[in-house]
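Problem 12. The chain below contains 686 residues. Write out its predicted structure in token notation.
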Amino acid sequence: MYQEKLYEYYLERKHHAFRVPFPESRASAFRDPAVPPVRRMAARLSALLSEERPVILPGQKIVFLRTVTAPPSIFSGEEWDRISGEHFIHELGYLSNMSPDYASVIRKGLLACREEAGKRLARAQSEGDPEGIDFLESAIAEIDAVRDLASRYREEAEKEGLSEIARVLSRVPDYPAGSFYEALQFFRILHYALWAEGEYHNTAGRFDLWAWPYLEKDLASGALTEDAAAALLEDFFLSFNWDSDLYTGVQLGDNGQSMMLGGVDSLGKDVYNPLSKMCLETSYALKLIDPKINLRVSRDTPFERYLEATRLTKAGLGFPQYSNDDVVIPALEKLGYEKEDARNYTVAACWEFILPGVGAEIVNIGALSYPKAIQKAVYRDLAKAPDYESFLKCVENAVREEAEEIVEGVKNLYIVPAPFYSLLMDGCVERARDVSLGNKYNNFGVHGTGLSTAADSLYAIRTLIFEEGSLTPAELIDAMEKDFGGYDALLHRVRYELPKLGDGEPGPREAAEVLMNAFAGALQGKKNERGGVFRPGTGSAMFYLRHAEGLDASPDGRRRGEPFGTNFSPSLYAKSAGPFSVIGDFTALPAEKTINGGPLTMEFHSSVFRTDEGIDRVARLVKLFVDKGGHQLQLNSVNRERLLEAQEHPELHKNLIVRIWGWSAYFVELDKAYQDHLIARQEFDE
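Solution.
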């Protein structure tokens, strides 16, 4: 490790000592309801950055540290209640889960961005465009606020005799980055400013694609040695973690700082390069939850790359997550993405597929519960269904009803303006339009939760009611409502004896295919009010807990309140024949029709990775998944005994990292429900 002292400084959380609350006395300056919200956003960011104290930590190269916490909302409670009463508000109401075009701004510099905004402002003024004027003047004000903080950091570096940092900050962010160091520092400033403006789940995008040319030039010229470059990269990776506890989602760690490596560029050329490999090695060395590493692969990916990636999986971080270009790119094209854009995909906070710079999409606008649709069809239609095929039609109708309810529930959307974010999005300045109002792609993504529970339930119904006749619809409904109370033999059979999705048996797999096709069909042709389409997906997010809470017991033997399996994976209590049968089942399903994202998630006991032979076997398993046409894969190295010990003695396992769904976190900081779910997942030991 090159940055050991700085790393220890982080682990001991010494940087928290510099934090102070935002002064409430300044809140009135950006809460005036007579001022357009876009101007209030600029006023708040300017106020926050003016309160920031430049802090440079011992040995640090990549600077900018949040010292001021939690600026108040630009809306009063009463005003926000009115807005949310008149509009659909997604999550917190701010932009999230998008990928800015950092590279273009890093190549131009903020002074050039300011000049472009100034020219467009003059046009908006001559055209009498008040909304354009508000947006552009706000964007310029935010550029100036960011530049001012960078200038104060430069002055602090000069005062402390840190000439190298001062030199870099004399160039960026005003001017284009001319070196790898300058590019990393420029990125940090932009990424920092997005969080400060109020947006969240800000991804790192395709870092190795745009950053490698800077490093390649520096290595070739001798401006950097490989060791110096590795030290800078460690510092850069640490920068994602200094403030990450301030940027929380459902749980600590759910902050969306995902980085994509590899894949093809817009021309179809493989971009995996020495920097890509360095990122895998740096992540392994630091063993921190950010940035969250993703890897694009295909049938053409060399096996050595899978070995490199599997060595990182060994660390237990839940990295990398794999996305298969062979499946994802054609599927995105079918949804209406241009080929060049589809080739440039990355992932959002977890696994949803997004487009850097051109996508203003909401990839988690809602979530459909397959088991809820099954329950509805069982209670309403099963008793009058003459045969299994007729009942399947009822299930498909229930899925359609669930989907239509989601579509109808997300109209009249309001998103808080984001003038600084808009500077990093294609065309926003030229059109004098805030990205909160939309961009080139404005699609909505819908999760599909509990697939295995629903598929296994359908198979149980088919077997017991329509084939054997050993169970009546009335008995099944009674058992579900009573949580299998008094139905011990039935519970044991459906829970443990009948085949489950992941076993390699055709029945559950066929049921899953019916459900996925029904979901895709229910959303096909639906348009949102921004002109985008609805994308069904295979992810679950936190809904593997939330959707399960409101359901009775399921026909597959899931008890009331028991959670679903995470994402695109077998049920928690389904003990499959092994990883190959799981991969066989899930790669056979029509994921190309439900391409919002959501990986097959598999846990392997940490002992599997102890030898080179074990790493080789896992790498070959990943390659098999990709070669068989799987769309997305998440492998985790876990140890149930260690997790149980960490529950009992959290003080001894403060830095134990685990993968939750599409993100990683410190195990001891999670709510017990998430800890228990992780412990309950099936571990493969070979």
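Discussion. The CA atoms of residues 177 and 183 lie 5 Å apart. Students who got a different answer should revisit the alignment rule from Section 12.3.
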